[in-house]
User: What shape does this take?
Amino acid sequence: MCVAQSRQIRTLFSPLDMSFLLHLCAELEQQRDIRLTCVLRRSAELLQVVRELQPDILLLDCGAHDQHQRSLLETIRTTAAHTKVILFFDCDAQDAIIDALEHGVRGCLLKTCSPECCLRAIRAVDGGDMWAGRKALAQLLDSLMAQVRAAQEPAVERIPGLTLRELEVVVRIKGGMTNKEVARQLGISETTVKTHLQHVFHKLHISRRVELWHRALGSAPLGMSLMR
Assistant: This one.
């Protein structure tokens, strides 16, 4: 009688902390369901190797690709749609984690996590789940709900190219909130709100808050300050 072999999760590593990587590799050697496909030492090789090997899971160091992370993730989705990405962060930066999840990352871990935690994340993400902290997942859900509500309003639909978080900020500004009120409701800093607005202004080629209303949302509410 033939016994079917269980499927192995093909895993690819791109620059991670060597100490963590050594501990993780030691754990992987004892796992029957996870196989280490390749370990990359140079980021420049990443896209070519991912395209050729089509791994099930790709573990990435967020810091190693920070400057072009969004375009990198988009390229991976295009060339290796089957591959699921898990990002490793230096700290619990909620905005960066939310942004990563919004751009298709399926798991977010801290570099201080244990190898056992990483193995659980690999199995969960391979099985179709998302792996991140509860706060990050709750904020992601809020962002998705904001997008749904915004999609029901024709004025907001006219804003092109915004991320879920940027749209979430714009929707609240549309409701007349100040930056401080938006920050309090989203659980982020006022500085972060201003950064999101700067990104929105750049994408829409505008320079002031009031222009956001006139160009994308209609006339501004009475008494709205240009700087809040």
Remarks:
- Strands lie at 9-13, 34-39, 57-61, 84-89, 107-110.
- The radius of gyration is 21 Å.
